[in-house]
Fold this protein.
Amino acid sequence: MTARKISLVDGEYYHVYNRGADKRDIFSDDEVLDRFMQSVAEFNGPDPIGSIYEHSYDKNSLTTGSQTNKSLVSVVCFCLNPNHFHFILRQESERGIEKFMQRLGGYPKYFNNKYKRSGVLFQGKFKAKHILDDKYLLYLSAYVNLNNRVHQIGSSSSLDNQSSNLIRSSWNEFVDQGSTNFCDKDIILGQFPNKDAYKKFALELLPTMVEAKKMSRELEDASD
């Protein structure tokens, strides 16, 4: 996956996303989700690591290089849905986002080999939109963390058990005490007195985001 010709600035924040070609699923079981998250963690550095098969996989060691000065990017938050993904990334080195996404480009080969398929997996090049102000950064953090709920994927009763719906999100990391430390959350949580305050902020935005997404779908259908 390579970026469109845009200027990506070190230290700035970007909303990075893509979806499956023809809206097909790109994450179809827990194994492929684990593999993608392993790639996110291990490919976030300046030097190639070789084949990912050379590295053992340990869910308990899933921490990014986000907080090191050798990282390509900092992962602020993310959501992996069955047919698309979202990240908020801060670029930490020259062409960091571009290099990071290129390394994730090995995932389609893995997916095709696993399911004995051929052809493209993603719908063209990944998109990267510059986040220009803090207000929008906070809004997008809620949108990304709760993206499965925005799209109303899965039943409300099982949203806390995200793996059962083939969803991975940083939501629990942002709102649960003692959760994992995969993301670099300080730019978001540092603006709230505690995690409960952020949770309240995000959940209050959810109905508006769901309605906006519904209207967007209706406009797309009307233009077909």
Summary: The helical segments are 30-42, 96-104, 107-115, 134-145, 147-150, 171-175, 186-189, 195-223. The beta strands are 13-19, 73-81, 84-91, 127-130, 168-169. The CA atoms of residues 112 and 118 lie 6 Å apart. The chain has one domain: 13-223.
